[in-house]
Write a structure and sequence with these properties.
By secondary structure, the chain is an alpha/beta fold. Helix content is 35%, strand content 27%. Strands 1-4-3-2-5-6 form a six-stranded parallel beta sheet. Strands 7-8-11-10-9-12 form a six-stranded antiparallel barrel.
Length: 308
């Protein structure tokens, strides 16, 4: 897959079959559109192209609103699109100035003059341009003038999938990581760097990797204990993970820490990826560290039952 980073890098793409959108999470509903793009490109002997905006438009238009959390970073989204089989990923920097571009200018300057779009495929009710003025009806009425074909994925096709990025965020906020997996077609994951902790887990016989997240804008699942798979140095390990305040220990700040099974490497300052498999329980406050250790033994047994 070729990444074109910015409007100025966009060049004519032969027989370009194009779609555009934020595609946060690249869930199974998105994948339905993307597979159609790839298949059309093969049919016409052309190239599939996804035009996406970064940062997310809401981060730019509503900078003081911190409610929106994303399912994927740009790098994660790019990797998934590559796996789907997309030929070109076009990254357009979304700015306040760009948000003022009319749909007419966007179509003519970007889709026609720069990309050379042969066919544009969009999801139902997809709009673009200043004040979201561009619609499927507008595109259809003017397709002969723009010299490209327009196709809209029917509402029925998308509704049959029953998935949206909002639904996935809600599932994660409720701790339903297995449901999020079903909606996305893969486990929900977060990446981070291992930082020094207070080593209380080591004292209990359960050393943990304390994880500082790479992206503060990503959704963090509901507090609790999870069975997870952790990617470290190109290998995947079974693990259990806690998200929360650690009320038995200090309860002062929210942390994410993973105990990786059968693992004894020094990975301080290294990157890892957590893949969520199943939520096991709520975070609890115990009367003693011994009681906490007993529960950790149970959590390990339950995690292994899920993972293996």
């Amino acid at each position: 897959m070729i990444l074109l980073d910015g409007i100025n890098q966009i060049h004519h793409i032969p027989n370009a079959i194009v779609t555009s959108g934020t595609f946060d999470g690249v869930h199974i509903g998105h994948q339905k559109i993307l597979k159609k793009i790839v298949n059309n490109a093969k049919k016409f002997g052309g190239k599939s192209a996804v035009l996406t905006f970064w940062p997310h438009p809401r981060f730019v238009l509503f900078p003081d609103d911190n409610k929106l959390k994303l399912l994927t970073s740009f790098e994660e989204k790019a990797e998934i699109l590559k796996e789907v089989g997309i030929d070109y990923l076009i990254k357009v920097e979304f700015t306040k100035e760009f948000s003022q571009m009319s749909s007419e200018s966007f179509i003519q300057d970007v889709l026609v003059d720069r990309i050379g779009t042969k066919k544009l495929i969009i999801g139902y009710d997809h709009k673009f341009g200043k004040n979201r003025e561009g619609s499927f009806e507008y595109l259809k009425e003017n397709s002969s003038r723009f010299h490209f074909e327009v196709e809209e994925i029917p509402r029925q096709d998308i509704d049959d999938v029953g998935v949206s990025s909002t639904k996935i965020r809600m599932a994660l906020e409720e701790g339903q990581v297995d449901l999020a997996h079903e909606y996305m077609g893969r486990p929900y994951s977060v990446g981070g760097t291992v930082v020094a902790g207070k080593k209380i887990g080591t004292q209990l016989g359960f050393p943990t990797a304390n994880i500082q997240l790479n992206h503060s804008y990503k959704v963090v699942p509901k507090d609790g204990v999870y069975a997870v798979k952790v990617d470290v140095n190109g290998k995947q390990w079974d693990a259990m993970l806690n998200i929360g305040l650690r009320p038995t220990v200090d309860g002062l700040s929210r942390v994410m820490e993973a105990h990786i099974f059968d693992f004894d490497q020094d990975i301080y300052d290294q990157s890892l990826v957590v893949n969520f498999v199943k939520r096991l329980r709520d975070e609890q406050k115990f009367d003693s560290l011994d009681e906490l250790k007993g529960q950790l033994e149970i959590d390990k047994t339950n995690s292994l039952a899920v993972l293996r």
